[in-house]
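Input/output pair, single chain:
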Amino acid sequence: AHLNSSTVPDGLSTVAVAAGPAANDQKLRSGPLVGTRVVDMSSVVSGPMATSVLADQGAEVIKVEAPKSPDMTRGLGPAPTKGLGAMYATLNRGKRSVTLDVQKPKGLELLKRLVSKSDVVVQNYRPGVAEKLGVDYASLCLVNPDIIVLSISGFGPTGPYADLRVYDQVVQAMSGVTTIMSDGAGQPAMFHNLIVDKVTSLNAAQAVTAALLAKSQGKGGQNIQLSMMDAAMHFLFPDAYWNKVWPDIAPIATEWREIAQRSTYDASDGRVSISATDARQMWGLLEVTGLTEHRSDSFGKMRAAALEKIRAVLKTMTKQDIFDICQRHGVPCGMFQTLDEALSDPQVRHCGTVEEHVHPEGGRYRASRPPAQFARTPSCVQGPAPLMGVDNAEVLKELGLSTAEVEGLRKEGVI
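Output:
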């Protein structure tokens, strides 16, 4: 059933499905990865966000947690009920949930039975932990030679930092993110978001799909190692590291912080970002502000002569007026928007970027739709995030266990 448009708050798509396809009903799933099974042994952000992308694209993702050690994100953010913190609900939508204590022989044996019927395993243990538990690639490919195992770590499986405990902020500091975020006094600063976790997760999702393609071409399964440090530096290299690309060429004195500041202008009711990067766009900005007497063929001369006058004129205008008139003159411009303003943005509403669904236990929730829109194999929010262990009985019965055996495992603390 669809939500009635009159009940959908501003900023939400009115095409949202009330409950969404059930995550455990494979016949209702859609997307290019339908028919692929992923065992998600990861936690927090880098792994779960990667597997949520795979789930959105149709893969059956089975999230595996230890019975007494749930994913910490279950407790992060507002929650309608225990275990459905906002971060967890977003990162684990469309998945099934199984609890297995792989430190117990029966739990490890069940995990391996699950892997034997799967295509991919994703984990983000510190190097050495998977080997200790017996869930590393070498162990798992013994039960499924074609398995693809993606292992995410902070700094890689070897080296002086391999064993360190790592979170997003640690890699921000080590990779140079904090340098490019430095303030006017040169004081390094954190990016106020889990940017390294997220860019790692997108690399992880792409790596899995590439490995699945290789497997479909007869090249079998494989082990994939992905470090957050590598992902962060790869992400930063085109611009932040551009003075390091050609070691025999003198660097260009360019501060990305200054570029960002130069593109930021005050309005009467907020701020806008205007990226006039060539003479034609600068002409348009002069027309926007009524300063056409400064028009010339030189972008640099125009900017130097008129910049402060442009700032003064824009301060008398609302950000919406600046945005509207810049669009008419072909000048790239965006308004600084709050989260609520972004939710209500007419383009966001038009595209259905944010949907509203109903969780069977938590009630209404918002979800961003999958950004990649496939014409022939459409992806979607396949279902809500699962409560912990909610699919234990069903998944274990699919592995051939009886109801009595499942109950026995529960009493033993295996599940």
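The two ends are 34 Å apart (CA to CA). Residues 263-344 form a domain with the formyl-coa transferase, domain 3 fold (CATH 3.30.1540.10).
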